[in-house]
Amino acid sequence: MPAEAVDFELLFEALLSPHLVLAPDLSVVAANTGMCRLLQCSRETLLGQSVHAVFAQATQPGPAVLAEWQTALAEVVEQQRNQNLNLRHDLRLSDGTLQPHHWQIQLRPVPTAAGTLRYVLCRVLDVTDRVVALEQSNERFRLLLEVLPQMAWTSRPDGGVTYYNQRWYDLTGGTFAELQEWGWEKFIHPEDLAETSRRWQHALTTGTLFENEHRWRDQQGKYRWFLARAEAIRDAEGTILQWVGTNTDIDERRQALARLQEKDQQLQAIIGNVPAYICTMFGPRHIIGFANAQIQHLLAGRAKVGLPVAEALPEVASNGLIPLLDSVYKSGQPYSAIEIAMPVIGEPTQPVETRYFDFTYQPLHDEAGRPQGILMFAVDATERVQARHRADGLAAEVRQRDEQFRFLAESIPQIVWRARPDGTIEYYNQRWADFTGFNAADAAHIDWSTLIPPDKVEGVKQRYFASISAGQEYEEEGRMRGADGQYRWFLHRAQPMRDAEGHIVKWFGTSTDIDDFKRAQQRLEEQNETLTLTNQDLDSFVYTTSHDLKQPINNMAGIFEELTRTAYFRDPDAVKLIAMFERSLQQIYDTIHNLSELVQVQKLRHALPLETVELEPLAQEVLTSIDEQLRAAHAGVALDFAALPAVEFVRPNLQSVFYNLLSNALKYAAPGRQLRIAVRSVLEDGHPVIEVQDNGLGIDMERYGPQLFTMFRRFHGHVEGSGMGLYLVNRIVQSHGGHIDVQSQVNEGTTFRIHLLRVVKL
């Protein structure tokens, strides 16, 4: 049997809620009885009319409602999207009067199979009674909120605030226009706004309780703390209808809490900075209630709050302190002890360390005087105990060293003394007593300045105490009176002894008898003075002798020359004898010249000042003076003064040194090979050295080395000479504080190295 066709028109008519069916052009194509009853008109009046005209005739909406209605119709036609509206308007009754009404309108597109719009189904529910009832309920609710002592408010499900009670306006001085929706953000402290907004958005998203503490600005521009809380109001289906919140003034509580926290921080700072270990234990089992940071650090955090001492710290129990705690707890009497050795266990990997403590166990009582617990206050005395042990050991060491010092001081031949940091002498050894006749034990009471010659006392004391004040080494030579009343010379020296910080703790001094040395020195000075006069006389004698000999020798030479010119010698050896006489005469001339030059060098050293002598020009002058001999010997000379261009010397003396050494190189050139001479300057350990090197005959240093600079000593018989050159060179160099060393190999050559004192910085 075929299914009976469904009469949809009958069903549409039977719908209880008012319905319209609209064509795509929004003209009415169907209306059920409920709609006709709602609009108070017949079905024929509605069919074919535009829905805009239908509602315009039946209602009188405001501009905003009309715009919302038109926008919803356009979107459902153009976009085929469901639209839900809550509209408030005035409904025109049959007698022409207007009555406020609230409609919930649902617009649903009905497309064809091809997806094009065929109809728009419009359902209208009149919720006026419900809205009025809700508004009456809200009014009663608002009256209730107005009498609350807190600041109360309501908001829509999206968070926009719709109501504030009078407490808000009293606090902020703002208007509802300023505060509504999200305007409240302007009154929140800037530092609290971000967290408040975050929590409010989280509550809106999750529907959970909103709670936050933040600051609000009052009419005077000051901020007060409030506790904000809001709960969601839901319908029977659980949909959020609105939010209701309160803000409770907690400013005084916050201030009190801040003061309490400040006091607590101060207390914690005090306890934290006190160099002590503080712990409270409660009950007969001595359960740890508090342990400060110091004790936790000491015990590596093992003093766990809530644990009995015996369980948290087994080493305490094994050390016999639990019975002591029991006694204090039961008797109510405090107990104190100092420098008690205790095993301390820190990290598990660390060994047990024994430390010393001063501690007090102070009983704690409740208001009724019953025992409640024990306060422990302990101070680490380990360093004090160890310091005392070190001090005892140091004192013993000091006594031992003092005994060693006294033994040493009594063993040496000098007078030994010791002074305080201010220079006051507190100890003399027995040598001082033997010399002065005073008792060494009375050193601190004897004025040592009474032993100094009266005319020297002021200067000696001034220099001594100046060294003491400056903390510098003291050294002075002076005379001191002995027990026999005679003065003897002493060398006084003192050195400060300092501690680890550099402070002077003692002065240690010696007084060495140098009287015999001073007398010997005086005799030596007298002998030197005599020797100087003798040398001066000798120089004068040499000069005078050389000068006085010149004339007789000149006369002898003239007579001999005239004799050889006019006389006739029959002896066949006469010519040889004449040559021998001429050579002897020339040697006499050279000897007299060298003696004169020696005296002249000595005078120049003391008469002329040192000057900066450039070596290159000076060497060239000397080479020019012997240029003829150099050419005759075909000698090659190389000069190199780059390392040291100049020295400080008496110029004529250095010229004589160069002349003699270069002349010697020419005289003692090796036959059969070209003579090579090198003159150079070098620096060795900061001192100038001048080298003159040749490839001549050389000198047998093993045989003649000790005699090298002896006057009138010659080492090669085939060459004429006086034997004065090297003696003169050595005398010049030594007079300038230098010295000469020689390196020579027979038939290979000789190097003279002249070591000087001063360097010239150009």
Automatic annotation (TrEMBL):
InterPro entries given in the database record: HATPase_C_sf (IPR036890), HATPase_dom (IPR003594), His_kinase_dom (IPR005467), HisK_dim/P_dom (IPR003661), HisK_dim/P_sf (IPR036097), PAC (IPR001610), PAS (IPR000014), PAS-assoc_C (IPR000700)
Keyword Ribosomal protein assigned: no
GO MF terms held by the record: phosphorelay sensor kinase activity
Residue span, PAC domain: 210-262, 474-526
Superkingdom, taxonomy of origin: Bacteria
Keyword Zinc belongs to the record: no
Signal sequence region: none
Keywords: Kinase, Phosphoprotein, Transferase
Stored SUPFAM superfamilies: ATPase domain of HSP90 chaperone/DNA topoisomerase II/histidine kinase (SSF55874), Homodimeric domain of signal transducing histidine kinase (SSF47384), PYP-like sensor domain (PAS domain) (SSF55785)
Pfam families: HATPase_c, PAS_3, PAS_4
Domain spans labelled Histidine kinase: 544-760
Broad enzyme group: transferase
Known catalytic reactions: ATP + protein L-histidine = ADP + protein N-phospho-L-histidine
Domain PAS: 137-207, 401-471
Gene3D superfamilies in the cross-refs: 1.10.287.130, Histidine kinase-like ATPase, C-terminal domain (3.30.565.10), PAS domain (3.30.450.20)
EC number per UniProt: 2.7.13.3
Record-linked NCBIfam families: sensory_box (TIGR00229)
PANTHER family: PAC DOMAIN-CONTAINING PROTEIN, PHYTOCHROME-LIKE PROTEIN CPH1
Protein name, UniProt field: histidine kinase
Organism for this UniProt entry: Hymenobacter daecheongensis DSM 21074
